[in-house]
């Protein structure tokens, strides 16, 4: 079994380092880079998802997907399209229907930020704005029933906007579990890596018992 980790838009793959180090499955874990997957391609969600799907398809084994924010959106999308391939799903600060108004405000802020502020993302400013713009119409509401695997929904206590959505997802998915990380905000993998690792490992152990 392979464990694939997907970071959020404002992060890089190393944001998972501390979390993975604390789990018992580190040798089977792979950190994917959103920037590398989009290299040489148009900065659109469709291109990013296509590249991510290709990475998943290369794995000749069952996979467990763990994604945060945009990473969670991609992971959920793939689990809907390939229910037989995904053994389990971890969605942190997830959205299944993009909040259009929030994305518009976010993109206005992105326009005002200097180019240097985007270096930590591994993307150019124009690419981030383009990518967010193409996500506005995403709505998985009618396809959530296709996800057949166990799903762990995690959200930081302080991440109020995404916590509401995570709890909503519990009503639409077939086999959901919800966990709230105390004192953590949106970037749970950076803000509470040890606590997150404990929750993940418990979930992973339960999956293996059912195999």
From TrEMBL:
<dbReference type="InterPro" id="IPR050266">
    <property type="entry name" value="AB_hydrolase_sf"/>
</dbReference>
<dbReference type="InterPro" id="IPR022742">
    <property type="entry name" value="Hydrolase_4"/>
</dbReference>
<protein>
    <submittedName>
        <fullName>Alpha/beta hydrolase</fullName>
    </submittedName>
</protein>
<feature type="domain" description="Serine aminopeptidase S33">
    <location>
        <begin position="60"/>
        <end position="127"/>
    </location>
</feature>
<dbReference type="InterPro" id="IPR029058">
    <property type="entry name" value="AB_hydrolase_fold"/>
</dbReference>
<dbReference type="GO" id="GO:0016787">
    <property type="term" value="F:hydrolase activity"/>
</dbReference>
<keyword id="KW-0378">Hydrolase</keyword>
<dbReference type="Pfam" id="PF12146">
    <property type="entry name" value="Hydrolase_4"/>
</dbReference>
